[in-house]
Design a protein that fits this description.
Blueprint (H helix, E strand, L loop, with lengths): L1 H9 L13 H9 L11 H12 L14 E5 L9 H5 L5 E2 L7 E2 L19 E5 L4 H6 L2 H42 L4 H16 L4 H27 L2 H25 L7 H24 L4 H25 L16 H22 L5 H20 L4
Antiparallel strand pairs: 1-4, 2-3
Length: 387
């Protein structure tokens, strides 16, 4: 144990995982068991030499190119407050809240880069540290180790609390069954307790319902974020992503409603509800495929599935005995394809100019071309006269 602590004391405590281990302490333990000493990019040559001297082994060339001291920087104007970087930071060096701007505490950041990948809007930069800030970061290894251990302890406490809450819920669900067993000798009381247990079971979510409820919430959150990004940037890739997320959200919501239905599976009311959900899913799938330019064979299959869903809904409505809804026909004007294309081009051009103007290091020539594109899009839209 003393040997592991001595090795760990020589590591930079970035907790980056680039050595293939989930932190500096696990890598120190692996080195004590015979693993190579040259797998720490943030430590570089200096760490390799210190480890070689401590362990009395030959100095090796770095297996991965060394990484100089660095920190993370969040472009706060682009942050959407998703908290994914906060969850990824191993030393709790990022502060913020859901749907609020996040920022990095410079003196606590190890430069591990673990916050970059989870960011859905790519608003985090990794910046090199100049001297003397780089030297000061190297001297804070003990501080980083303590923050990492505190972070791990907090995660363990939260997991233990969640386990205790799950256990308590399970015991509450099982309690009516124990009471029913205790009064089984009294037929009348047993019948009363049986009815109570059935009501309690009916009001308790099953594991499947809980899972679907969580998936539905996560799908809705992902869809909302993607829609915001589409409104800001308006790229075809984001449009396709929004369509896919909307289809997934509808499908998960349909599955949740089907699992949460209190009516027996064979009743006409439940069949009517399922038919309506199936029709909504088929309609969404077809619209998504048409927007994404799917092949004609795929469109034919989806149209046939939509037609079958419509027939199934009509049959379920007739079987339910409910009066058909009163439909009001509204004549819609055809979409002006040219006008829509001009408005789309204007939105793309405006989004590009806004993006370049927010970027401090944007190329002047690129910005000039983007503004010219915006002016041309505005002119064409202003001069367009619908037929």
């Amino acid at each position: 144990m003393i040997r592991i602590q001595a090795i760990d004391a020589l590591l930079p405590q970035t907790q980056c995982g680039k050595c293939g281990h989930p932190g500096c302490k696990p890598y120190a333990r692996a080195i004590a068991e015979g693993e190579a000493i040259n797998k720490c990019p943030p430590g570089g040559v200096a760490t390799i030499q210190a480890l070689a001297e401590l362990l009395d082994v030959p100095v090796l060339a770095p297996e991965i190119p060394p990484i100089p001291p660095q920190i993370a920087f969040i472009r706060e104007a682009e942050c959407i407050g998703c908290t994914k970087c906060i969850q990824a930071c191993p030393v709790d060096a990022i502060v913020g809240a859901a749907k609020q701007m996040h920022t990095v505490i410079i003196d606590e950041c190890t430069g591990c880069e673990l916050c970059v990948a989870p960011c859905p809007v790519d608003c985090i930069d990794i910046l090199p540290l100049p001297e003397p800030e780089a030297k000061a970061q190297r001297e804070r290894a003990d501080q980083f180790r303590q923050r990492f251990e505190t972070h791990q302890a907090r995660l363990e406490r939260e997991e233990a609390r969640k386990q205790a809450e799950r256990q308590a819920r399970a015991e509450r669900v099982a309690q009516p069954q124990l009471q029913q067993t205790a009064v089984a000798t009294d037929p009348i009381q047993a019948a009363i307790e049986r009815v109570k247990a059935q009501k309690a079971a009916a009001g308790t979510l099953t594991d499947q319902q809980k899972r679907l409820k969580i998936e539905a919430a996560m799908a809705q959150v992902a869809l909302s974020k993607a829609e915001k990004q589409l409104a800001t940037h308006g790229t075809p890739a984001l449009e396709a992503q929004v369509a896919e997320l909307r289809t997934a959200a509808v499908a998960v919501q349909a599955a949740l409603q089907a699992a949460s239905s209190t009516a027996p599976a064979g009743t006409d009311e439940a069949a009517l509800k399922k038919a309506k959900i199936a029709l909504a899913v088929r309609r969404t799938e077809l619209k998504s495929a048409e927007r994404n330019g799917a092949e004609e064979a795929e469109l034919v299959r989806l149209r046939a599935a939509l037609s079958d869903a419509e027939q199934a809904l009509h049959a379920a409505e007739e079987a339910s005995g409910k009066p058909p809804p009163e439909l009001v026909r509204i004549d819609k004007q055809p979409v002006d394809v040219r006008l829509r294309a001009l408005k789309t081009e204007l939105a793309y051009a405006r989004a590009e100019v806004n993006k370049l103007e927010r970027r401090s290091g944007a190329d002047a020539d690129t910005l000039t071309k983007a503004r010219a594109r915006l002016a041309e899009a505005e002119r064409q839209l202003h001069e367009y006269a619908p037929a």
